Amino acid sequence: MSAHILQIANLTAGYQPGLPIIRDVSMHVSKGEMVTIIGPNGAGKSTLIKAVAGLLNVEDGRVELSGSDITRISTHKMADAALAYVPQTDNIFASLTVDENLKLGAQALPKATARERVEEAYEKFPDLRKFSRRKAGVLSGGQRQMLAVGRALLTHPEIVMLDEPSAGLSPKMVDDVFAQLVALVKSGVAILMVEQNAKAAMRISDRTYVLAEGRNRLDGASDALLEDPQVTQIYLGRAGRKQ
Ligand SMILES: Nc1ncnc2c1ncn2[C@@H]1O[C@H](COP(=O)(O)OP(=O)(O)OP(=O)(O)O)[C@@H](O)[C@H]1O
Ligand SMILES: [Mg+2]
């Protein structure tokens, strides 16, 4: 049995059978760890976490959550699993209020538990309480991200996968969102996040995986990779081919 919360082993997956986007990708996340995935545009980062979240066709390999196989688990069952996924876009309902978004996220839980969990979200993110009656669509980018994370936490996951939580945010908001993620990890929830904001993400995470062309290219302690010229090379290699 695996000692890791999340174990991705030799995963090959894509959008159409026979046309894999990610190939033979392996990663793991331990309890309370923050792990970043970086890589050039189109590297397959979003595809990888969609495949782990059970949304894509997995051709080969295995995904284990606390030692249990979740490789081809149904979306319905995934909702009960201890793994939450915050997509890159469309992660909240813009036309609903903050409160409605949270209640909807908690609707699978028993009523009393749902009420407690929504209250917990308000305690964790005071801004959400302040704007509870506003439509989610009018929130700032950072507040929307908080709402998406708040929703993901309602089921008390052991690990949250986030696809570019800082996308489109001002530097100040990036700092706010990252500070919330650090606090989340301190509270014992593990994080696997994809980030374009590579350096900032590596500064707050324990380990980093570099993905390129759908494959593992490099991994290690984030502070070591921050200084590693190979990381820049992988990005430049891609940029070079574009010209
Ligand atoms: N829905 C889809 N159907 C078919 N191919 C797709 C789909 N979404 C993405 N792809 C392809 O998969 C490859 C990897 O895309 P993916 O979105 O995983 O990259 P990424 O690393 O997340 O990039 P970015 O940094 O730009 O978000 C790309 O070649 C892309 O064209
Ligand atoms: Mg992406």
Summary, kept brief:
With 243 residues, this protein is an alpha/beta fold. It has ten helices and ten strands. The longest helix is centred in the C-terminal third of the chain and has 16 residues, at 171-186.
How would you characterize this protein structure?
With 243 residues, the chain is of the alpha/beta class. It has a single domain, classed as Rossmann fold. Helix content is 39%, strand content 27%. The protein has ten helices and ten strands. It has helices at residues 45-52, 75-78, 98-105, 111-124, 126-130, 141-153, 171-186, 198-204, 222-226, 229-242; strands spanning 6-16, 19-29, 34-38, 57-65, 68-69, 83-86, 159-163, 190-194, 207-212, 215-221. The strands form two sheets. A six-stranded mixed sheet has the order 6-7-8-3-9-10, with helices on both faces. It has a four-stranded antiparallel sheet with strand order 2-1-4-5. Helix 3 packs parallel to helix 6. The chain is globular and about 45 Å long. The protein starts with 5 loop residues before the first strand and ends with a helix. 40% of the residues are buried. Mean pLDDT is 91; it is low at 239-243. Residues 15, 21, 39, 41-47, 196 line the site of adenosine-5'-triphosphate (ATP).
